[in-house]
Amino acid sequence: MKQLCIMLVLAVLLIAQNGKGEKIMTEKVHKSAAEWQTCLTPEEYRILREKGTERAFTGKYYHHKEDGNYICAACENELFSSETKYDSGSGWPSFSAAIAEGKINYKEDNSLGMLRIEIFCAKCDSHLGHLFDDGPQPTGKRYCVNSISLDFNKAK
After folding, report:
1. Model-level pTM greater than 0.85?
2. Which is it for strands 78-81 and 85-86: parallel, antiparallel or unpaired?
3. Which one, of 150, 110, 115, lies nearest residue 133 by Cα?
4. For position 27, what pLDDT does the model report?
5. What is the distance between the alpha carbons of residues 70 and 60, in angstroms, rounded to a whole number?
6. Whether the predicted pLDDT of 91 surpasses 80
7. Are 104 and 98 in contact (CB under 8 A)?
8. Which domains does the chain have, with CATH numbers?
9. Who contacts 85 (Cβ-Cβ below 8 Å, separation ≥6)?
10. Side by side, which strands form the sheet with 116-121?
């Protein structure tokens, strides 16, 4: 039953991820582990490539309030808009929607003895964080993201 619910959630996300019906295709980035290690810091590599998690309430974007877009720290793929960022109290930057459909991929994650949805960059497959169903309306989603997985482009 849980797997059926997860599949349903994933299907809904694929259909109406950002409420605009936009689908943006991105060209894949392919690098070996050695190549990723040369362009990422050890902490970035641990989180982005080995699916690590930064400590809660420590990330540079947790309290960040500027207008603009959050991009993947590994490949610069646009992921989230500041318009969907909110304070969830979780200790990590939280967003109610991706910037557009096709920018983020989803995968069932059964690690740590719990059922979650892992989110990762659709362009380079870097781990971003997890998706939960306890966010604000209208999406009801909380994209819980490691700050170290993100960079920021300030609005002009």
Report:
1. no
2. unpaired
3. 115
4. 84
5. 12
6. yes
7. yes
8. 2-154 (2.170.150.20)
9. 64, 70, 93, 94, 95
10. 85-86, 94-95, 142-145, 127-132, 116-121, 104-109
Find out whether 19 and 97 touch, Cβ atoms under 8 Å: yes
Q: Strand, helix or coil at 42?
A: helix
> From residue 99, how far is each of 20, 23, 119 by CA, in Å?
10, 10, 14
Q: Which of 72, 75, 121, 144 is catalytic?
A: 144
Length of the chain: 156
Place of tokens 């809904």: 12
Q: How far is CA 103 from the centre of its chain?
A: 9
Structure token digits, residue 3: 């797997």
Both tokens assigned to 27: 């060209």
Q: Is the dihedral of CA 4, 19, 121, 144 positive or negative?
A: negative
Query: Residue 11's pLDDT is what?
Result: 40
Q: Is 144 a catalytic residue?
A: yes
Mean pLDDT score across all residues of the chain: 86
Residue type at position 72 = C
> Is the distance from CB of 90 to CB of 102 less than 8 angstroms?
no
